[in-house]
């Protein structure tokens, strides 16, 4: 879909629906904090909080024992990135095969893209180079996050809901398909060297900067649980300091948003579908960041009052 189109494809509708769901979840969470204590402890709100929280924000939630049946370890986050690396490398290889050997996508993939976009596939049109570049950057991003989960981050016994885990498993599959959907709706020559090449260049630079910010933030978080020797000394939660933690409670979430914005620029800046993805990431990370921020504020009386949740000076 392009900016000039008014109809929403299936893939557009899915991302818009997810964005609205997390916007509603964010709004409900903010509003529930103003309710009397007896209402905040209701079964319905407890179930809602159980579904949106994970990790350290879930550990302070008072919930019925039967709800713990659906807990899975938060350290399983690495499963998401492992799937993302494998799936996006697979799509990347198919795209290279299409470009250099002129062999079209498999019929099952072509049919899936047609269903998602509502646009008949052009079997003779190779993927745009900008699309291939975004797939490559997604692979780089997922591989870095996988390595960070395995070798940098120090996970406690925090948990996430089974629904969150299953959602995460499917998320990057749909994300890779969303990138390919841009080929069926894009206009103009399939080349990086076009009138919008400077936008793509800016996107690449932003991707590098945001990735470095996120990595620095993950290292600082892991350092809270490690001694000078690099060995894990505690699993307790501490107030993060240094880097962009001086501005926001969750700079790694802000970096995640910037990474998705950068991929939108790398696609040329005119993919309506991808900006719906960015909208979803905004509300998703806003909710996660607000939950962490609320925990820090309630747990530490001396927590810096100038810090925002995840967007500096804004939210």
UniProtKB/TrEMBL annotation:
It catalyses: androst-4-ene-3,17-dione + NADPH + H(+) = 5alpha-androstan-3,17-dione + NADP(+); 17beta-hydroxy-5alpha-androstan-3-one + NADP(+) = testosterone + NADPH + H(+); a 3-oxo-5alpha-steroid + NADP(+) = a 3-oxo-Delta(4)-steroid + NADPH + H(+); a di-trans,poly-cis-dolichal + NADP(+) = a di-trans,poly-cis-polyprenal + NADPH + H(+). The chain crosses the membrane at residues 76-100, 163-186, 198-215, 257-283. GO terms for molecular function: 3-oxo-5-alpha-steroid 4-dehydrogenase (NADP+) activity; polyprenal reductase activity; polyprenol reductase activity. One of its GO terms (biological process) is polyprenol catabolic process. Pathway: Protein modification; protein glycosylation. Its EC number is 1.3.1.22, 1.3.1.94. Residues 1-33 form the signal peptide. Keywords: Endoplasmic reticulum, Lipid metabolism, Membrane, NADP, Oxidoreductase, Signal, Transmembrane, Transmembrane helix. Its main location: endoplasmic reticulum. It is a multi-pass membrane protein. GO terms for cellular component: endoplasmic reticulum membrane. It comes from the Eukaryota. Pfam families: Steroid_dh (PF02544). Gene3D superfamilies: 1.20.120.1630. It is found in: Endoplasmic reticulum membrane. Residues 201-315 form the 3-oxo-5-alpha-steroid 4-dehydrogenase C-terminal domain. Belongs to the steroid 5-alpha reductase family. Polyprenal reductase subfamily. PANTHER family: DFG10 PROTEIN, POLYPRENOL REDUCTASE. Plays a key role in early steps of protein N-linked glycosylation by being involved in the conversion of polyprenol into dolichol. Acts as a polyprenal reductase that mediates the reduction of polyprenal into dolichal in a NADP-dependent mechanism. Dolichols are required for the synthesis of dolichol-linked monosaccharides and the oligosaccharide precursor used for N-glycosylation. Also able to convert testosterone (T) into 5-alpha-dihydrotestosterone (DHT). This is Polyprenal reductase. It comes from Poecilia mexicana.
């Amino acid at each position: 879909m392009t900016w000039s189109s008014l109809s929403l494809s299936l893939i557009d509708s899915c991302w818009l629906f997810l964005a609205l769901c997390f916007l509603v979840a964010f709004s409900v969470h903010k509003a529930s904090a103003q309710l009397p204590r007896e209402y905040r402890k209701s079964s319905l709100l407890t179930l809602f909080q159980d579904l949106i929280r994970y990790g350290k924000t879930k550990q302070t939630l008072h919930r019925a024992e039967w709800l713990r049946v659906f807990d899975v370890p938060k350290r399983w986050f690495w499963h998401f990135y492992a799937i993302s690396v494998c799936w996006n490398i697979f799509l990347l290889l198919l795209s290279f095969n299409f470009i250099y050997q002129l062999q079209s996508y498999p019929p099952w993939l072509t049919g899936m893209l047609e269903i998602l976009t509502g646009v008949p596939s052009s079997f003779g049109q190779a993927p745009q180079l900008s699309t291939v570049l975004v797939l490559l950057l997604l692979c780089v991003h997922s591989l870095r996050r996988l390595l960070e989960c395995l070798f940098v981050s120090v996970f406690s016994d925090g948990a996430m809901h089974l629904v969150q885990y299953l959602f995460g498993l499917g998320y990057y599959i749909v994300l890779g398909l969303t990138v390919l959907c841009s080929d069926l709706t894009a206009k103009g020559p399939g080349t990086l060297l076009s009138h919008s090449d400077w936008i793509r260049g800016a996107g690449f630079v932003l991707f590098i900067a945001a990735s470095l910010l996120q990595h620095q933030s993950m290292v600082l978080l892991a350092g809270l649980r490690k001694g000078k020797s690099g060995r894990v000394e505690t699993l307790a939660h501490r107030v993060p300091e240094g880097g962009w933690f001086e501005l926001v409670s969750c700079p790694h979430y802000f970096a995640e948003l910037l990474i998705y914005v950068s991929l939108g620029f790398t696609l040329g800046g005119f993919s309506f579908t991808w900006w719906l993805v960015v909208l979803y990431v905004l509300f998703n990370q806003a909710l996660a960041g607000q939950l962490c921020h609320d925990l820090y504020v309630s747990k530490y009386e001396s927590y810096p009052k100038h810090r925002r949740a995840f967007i500096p000076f804004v939210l």
